[in-house]
Amino acid sequence: MQREHLTMTPEGLRLLTPRAKSDQGGGSGAELGIPRGMKVKTCPVRAVEAWLQASSCRYGPVFRKIDRWGNLETSALHPYALPRILARRLTFLAAPPAPSQALVVQ
Q1: Contacts of 17 (CB under 8 A, 6+ apart)
Q2: Contact 19, 2 (CB under 8 A)
Q3: Could you count the other beta carbons within 10 Å of the beta carbon of residue 26?
Q4: What's the rounded Cα separation, in Å, for the pair 16 and 106?
Q5: Which of 10, 59, 65, 74 is the most buried (most CB within 10 A)?
Q6: Residue 95's pLDDT band (cuts 50, 70, 90)
């Protein structure tokens, strides 16, 4: 996800995907609105804001690879990295992982 596809608003976060599965040849993509959460600790918008500040991400991909030494790379995460990251975090939290189908990126 490139920064130009992400817009912060007082109500939340707006994402524009350049391509969407539902496109029927138009290629216009899809827009998704994510509202701010009721709790600071679980608000997805605040989490993205905190990541953008911590990563000093001003342009390019929002979700980037971090190497084993903690260095932030400029290239985007591979699309299949997110399900693996989520599964590892769930294990870390001692929560049972969701079925693998639920973690597939489409």
Answers
A1: 1, 5, 29, 30, 31, 32
A2: no
A3: 8
A4: 15
A5: 65
A6: low
